[in-house]
């Protein structure tokens, strides 16, 4: 509300009354437009006008800076037009209420974080704490994640913003959070002055709702619009939550307009997030969208080897027989979190019973994990899921039709049958209507080739694989 307190001007200049300020506000409404007026001018309070200085109070620092930069001239002009002698305008802010630390819930990390390097974000703008273990040094790179890793590295260099946002997506436990924290850690070293804020979409919503409830929405806006790098994890969470989406959209736009870097993660590609507004989907697709593919054997083994090195230091003297890591990498294919959990348990168990880690010990200690990972996908299941996904008849999977709309899904199913089952090519051929193994081979090669050039196919395969393995 534009509520002037002034009644008298010490130099005998024209008095500022409620009416005259009202007139100035009316003029401003015409020149800056309704939306700008409501957002930026109406919350100002005129607190003083003397010695040619008009002083206003803005609810937050962010508003103060914004109004001063964008509307200062207009306000000055309208005050003068109304006959006031004003040399300059000052904008002030009242003391901001500090935000209680308990407003921030901890992110789901596997273990309590040991003292993380302190983010500027945590000092100035309480964000979620970073996990000190999630650094680039601790991130094992393999084919399935090399692109995501390279993109994260690029953003972490802190140079000019080249792609905005960076959108990382992939299935559960494949390293999205790890990469985001790694970016934050790296930025703290390279750009210590940068305000980096990491939080989950759930925390974003929580803070937004709380700000609404406590009528602190301007503080909320200021906090989120004054960062240099904003990272929002698991953005799929805000799908279907209308007002949070709305606020997220405006925050996103405001930051992009200011040339600030945004990094987002989700469990699927932007276009596949159900109940997410179209305008948000399209914004999220504007930058670089990269996926973390399910791990392959080499990556799993690499991760196990790296983590084993760390455990060796923790459990000196504990021996491990050859072949144990290979066995685990082969059998536990679900996700990295499960793989890590298996290794942790194995070391703890072996040290407790004072035995060498052998294959037998691993099988005994990890029975449940191994059984859960043992779920076998059948060719029939694959055919059914693929048919559903592409909206073709199940019978067409094994039938003779050669039109592309049917042949392509069939080849996708062949490819997945080879990837997700232990069946041989002739066996797969038999399940696909008695086709020859060379036809199956051709189908698999075709899909492998397309995955490199056709993003849609690569995304379809990724999604189907996840559906089938879950
Ligand atoms: N390439 C990797 N190298 C080393 N550790 C990894 C790698 N990928 C994942 N991890 C580890 O696996 C665990 C799960 O990773 P993270 O929490 O980043 O997964 P996420 O993709 O964010 O999963 P969610 O979808 O559940 O949020 C973490 O402990 C992380 O350090």
UniProtKB/TrEMBL annotation:
Return the InterPro entries for the record.
AAA+_ATPase, Chromosome_initiator_DnaA, Chromosome_initiator_DnaA-like, Chromosome_initiator_DnaA_CS, DnaA_C, DnaA_dom, DnaA_N_dom, DnaA_N_sf
Entry binding sites for ATP? 173, 175-177
GO annotation, cellular component aspect? cytoplasm; plasma membrane
* Region of interest (Domain IV, binds dsDNA), residue spans: 351-470
Q: Where is the Chromosomal replication initiator DnaA C-terminal domain?
A: 378-447
Task: Please list the residue ranges annotated as the AAA+ ATPase domain.
Answer: 162-292
Subunit details for this protein? Oligomerizes as a right-handed, spiral filament on DNA at oriC.
* Domain notes from UniProt: Domain I is involved in oligomerization and binding regulators, domain II is flexibile and of varying length in different bacteria, domain III forms the AAA+ region, while domain IV binds dsDNA.
Can you name this protein? Answer: Chromosomal replication initiator protein DnaA
**Gene name of this polypeptide:** dnaA
């Amino acid at each position: 509300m534009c509520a002037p307190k002034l009644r008298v001007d010490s130099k005998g200049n024209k008095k500022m009354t409620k009416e005259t300020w009202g007139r100035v506000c009316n003029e401003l409404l015409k020149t800056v437009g309704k939306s700008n007026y409501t957002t930026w001018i109406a919350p100002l309070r005129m607190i003083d006008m003397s010695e040619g200085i008009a002083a206003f109070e803005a609810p937050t620092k962010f508003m103060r800076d914004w109004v001063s930069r964008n509307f200062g001239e207009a306000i000055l002009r309208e005050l003068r037009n109304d006959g006031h002698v004003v040399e300059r305008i000052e904008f002030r802010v009242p003391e901001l209420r500090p935000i209680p630390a308990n407003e921030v819930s901890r992110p789901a990390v596997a273990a309590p974080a040991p003292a993380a390097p302190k983010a500027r974000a945590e000092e100035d703008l309480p964000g979620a704490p970073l996990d000190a273990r999630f650094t680039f040094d601790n991130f094992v790179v393999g084919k399935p994640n090399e692109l995501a890793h390279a993109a994260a590295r690029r953003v972490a260099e802190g140079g000019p913003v080249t792609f905005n946002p960076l959108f990382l997506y992939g299935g559960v436990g494949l390293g999205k959070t790890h990469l985001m924290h790694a970016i934050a850690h790296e930025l703290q070293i390279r750009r210590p002055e940068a305000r980096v804020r990491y939080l989950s979409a759930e925390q974003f919503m929580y803070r937004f709702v709380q700000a609404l409830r406590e009528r602190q929405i301007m503080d909320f806006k200021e906090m989120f619009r004054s960062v240099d790098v904003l990272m929002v994890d698991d953005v799929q969470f805000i799908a279907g939550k209308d007002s949070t989406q709305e606020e997220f959209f405006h925050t996103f736009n405001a930051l992009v307009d200011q040339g600030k870097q945004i990094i987002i993660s989700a469990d699927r590609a932007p276009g596949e997030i159900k109940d997410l507004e179209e305008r948000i989907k399209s914004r999220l697709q504007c930058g670089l969208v990269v996926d973390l593919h399910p791990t392959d054997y080499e990556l799993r083994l690499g991760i196990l080897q790296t983590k084993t090195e760390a455990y060796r230091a923790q459990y000196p003297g504990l021996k491990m027989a050859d072949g144990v890591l290979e066995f685990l990498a082969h059998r536990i294919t679900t996700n990295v979190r499960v793989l890590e959990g298996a290794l942790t348990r194995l070391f703890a168990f072996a040290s407790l019973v004072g035995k060498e880690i052998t294959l037998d010990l691993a099988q005994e200690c990890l029975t449940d994990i191994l059984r859960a990972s043992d779920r076998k996908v059948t060719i029939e299941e694959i055919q059914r899921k693929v048919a559903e996904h592409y909206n073709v008849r199940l019978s067409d999977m094994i039938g003779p039709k050669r039109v592309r709309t049917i042949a392509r899904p069939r080849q996708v199913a062949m490819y997945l049958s080879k990837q997700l089952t232990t069946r041989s090519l002739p066996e797969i051929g038999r399940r696909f209507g008695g086709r020859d193994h060379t036809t199956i081979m051709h189908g698999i090669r075709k899909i492998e080739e397309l995955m490199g050039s056709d993003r849609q196919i690569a995304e379809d395969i990724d999604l189907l694989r996840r559906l089938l393995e879950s």
